[in-house]
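does this look right to u?? nicotinamide-adenine-dinucleotide version
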Amino acid sequence: MASIEKLPAEEAQLEWNTPLFRTALAQFEQAIPYAEINESIIARLSSPERAVMVAVPIRRDAGNVDVFPAYRVQHSSVLGPTKGGIRYDPHVTLGECAALAVWMTWKCALLRLPYGGAKGGIRCNPRALSPGELQRLTRRYTAELMGVIGPQEDIPAPDMATNEQTMAWMMDTYSMQVGHAVPEIVTGKPIALGGSLFRREATGAGVVMVIERACRRLGWTLADQRCVVQGFGNVGGIAAQELSSKGALVVGISDVSGGIHAPDGLDLEAARNWIAAHGSLEDFPAEHVTNAELLELPCDILVLAALEDQLTGENAPRIDTRLIAEGANGPTSIEADAILAERGIPVLPDVLTNAGGVTVSYFEWVQDLGRLFWTRDEIRARLAEKLGDAFDRVWALADAKGISLRQAALVAGINEVAAALKARGIYP
Ligand code: NAD
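got this back:
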C-alpha cells in the first residue's frame, strides 16, 4: 500500500477536499515558513485525526421518517480532548467540519487551552423542523456519536442554529447512556445544568475585548468609531450591544433576511425586540440594504459575525472600513486577505477574535469537573486576561516577523501544537 506522503496531496485529502478546507490548509501553509515545525508534523496536522459520518433518522411530526447526513470531525488530540461546536445548517459538509476543526485546534492552542479542535453538524434546515423534531434529531445524533465523544475525548458546544437547549438534550442523552449525570460532556449548557455564567455572552463580548485592545494599539478611541456588524445572532447581537455600551456608534446590522442602515446610529434594542416578535429584521422600519451591500457600507470597524466566505476577491477592493474583526469563522477568503493587506486594512483574525466562546467553554468544563462555580465578574476578568495575553503575543509576533495578524495567530497556535507533538512523538 502506498504511504500517504507518496499520494498526490489532492488525493490524500480527497474526502474533505472542499473550498473551505483548502482555505484552512492554505492558511496553514502560509504560516509554516514562520513556525517551528518539521515535515512529519506538517503531514500529521494536514489531516484531521478522525472523521465520523452518520445518517440520522428521525420520525417527523407527520409520522414519516426522514434521514439527515451528520458529521463529527476531530482534528488533533495532542494537547487534550477535542472541542468544538455543532451546527445545524443546510450547507454542512464533511469538508466544512474539517476546516472548522482545524481552526479550532489553532484557536485552542493560541489561547493555551488544553484542547484540540473538533467540529460537527447536521445537514438540515433547522427553521423547517419543529422543537420536537429538533429534540429527536439531537438525541439520535448524540447516541450515534457515543463512541467518540466524552468529557476526556471530545466535548461539543453550540454553533450556528444550536443553543443551550440543544446542549441540554445532548447532555441528557449522554447521561442516560452512561447512567449518571455528566454535565462536563458539553459546554454552553443552561446554568441549571452546570452551565457557566457569561458563556452566552462570551464570544460577542470577547470580540469587543479584542477590538478594544486593537484600538488602543492603533491609537484610536473605541467610543469614536462607527461600526457595521454582519449577523445579529449570538455573536453579532452581543458584539453590537457591547460596542454600543462602550460608546461606539453601530450604523449597520444584518441577519439572514438582509441588513439595516442608519448613519446616525441604530436603535439596537428596537431591532432585538423586532426580531423577538417577527423572527427576523425583514420589514423593520429602517433603510434596508442587502447583506452584500452591508459589507460595503462606510464605517471604521466592520465586524463579521454571520458565516464563512463573506469577504472575497470580488468585494474586498470595495470594502470601506479601517479595521475588520472576524467574529465568525472563516469569513475572509485567501484572495480577500491579500487584497486587504495590500490596502492596509488590518484583519483581527477569527482564531483570536472569536476565541472568547471556547475560552469560557473551557472555564465551564473546569468548573463542572471541579463541581465548583465562579462568579460572573471572575469569569469576565479571567476571559479578558486570556484574550489580552493572546492578543499581545500575536501583535508582538506580527511585528517581529513582519507578518499579518492572521499569520501570527496561526504561527503562535501551530507552535504550541507542534512542540507538544514533537515531545510526544508518533505512536507507537
Ligand atoms: P447564530 O445562529 O446565533 O447567528 C447567526 C447570525 O447570522 C444570525 O443573525 C443569522 O440570521 C445570520 N445569518 C445566517 N445566514 C446568513 C447569511 N447567509 N447572510 C447573512 N447573515 C446570515 O450563530 P452564532 O453562534 O452567532 O455564530 C455566528 C458565527 O460565529 C459562526 O461562524 C460561528 O461558527 C461563529 N462562532 C460562534 C461562537 C459561539 O460561541 N456562538 C463561537 C465562535 C465562533
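The CA atoms of residues 97 and 285 lie 37 Å apart. idk if thats expected tbh
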